[in-house]
Amino acid sequence: MTPRTIVITGASDGIGAAAARTLAGGGDRVVVVGRSEAKTRTLAKELNTDYFVSDFAELDQVRELAAQLRDNYERIDVLANNAGGIMGKHLLTVDGNESTFQINHLAPFLLTTELMDVLTASKAKVINTSSGANNFGKIDLFDLNAEHSYSTNRAYGTAKLANILFTSELHRRFGEQGITTAAFHPGVVRTNFAADSTSPMRHAYKTLLNRFMLTPDQGADTLLWLINGTAGADWVSGAYYYKRALAKANAQAYDAELAQGLWEASEALVAAR
Fold it and tell me: Which residues are catalytic?
């Protein structure tokens, strides 16, 4: 069989790196994307694979990443939108968007839509890393930059909820063109995930509590299951998963009108100015 081409963002650490190692070890052509030049290059050297560096806090870098991927790969079998994290206080990016929302949702939305011609031609899977934190998020289409109400944890939950809404709308718009897609919660994984944030969650990652967290390999399990499984047989395209099973999400995640509105709002926010 021809090796699959699998692009994983947020691949320099955590579950992204764990998945990359497993997939590369199985013979897939893995393309690793990360924010840290040093860490991403080190992993790529370990796996003898291609890598790209992109900071999702700048949408121009996302556009450049998409252009590089289109130029280098005629087909992309899997796009794993895994980059993201909890940020700190309310900050706007250079693009004018709230940073948590941009890095976790707008950037992968832009990357996916910029690659849509390649993805549809490849009948690709698009797998989006969400979080159980979606349950304390709330999408307000008139306040996506959280100008009227902001907390670190709520902003993260809202972005992770946006990942699920993006997944369902991606299926609705492009499922008939061969795209299959899913969002998933990896569990609470022992990484440096919240280390640079002001979230109270950051303390758990630095204390004995992290002994009770999943390893990156354990956290990558559902991601790998989705990548290696078949939509329609093993999982349902457009749905949200946890531990290889359909999971219950925030009530807003099932609002089709909201999903469409978020897509249209996201298109406007990522439009090149």
Answer: 156
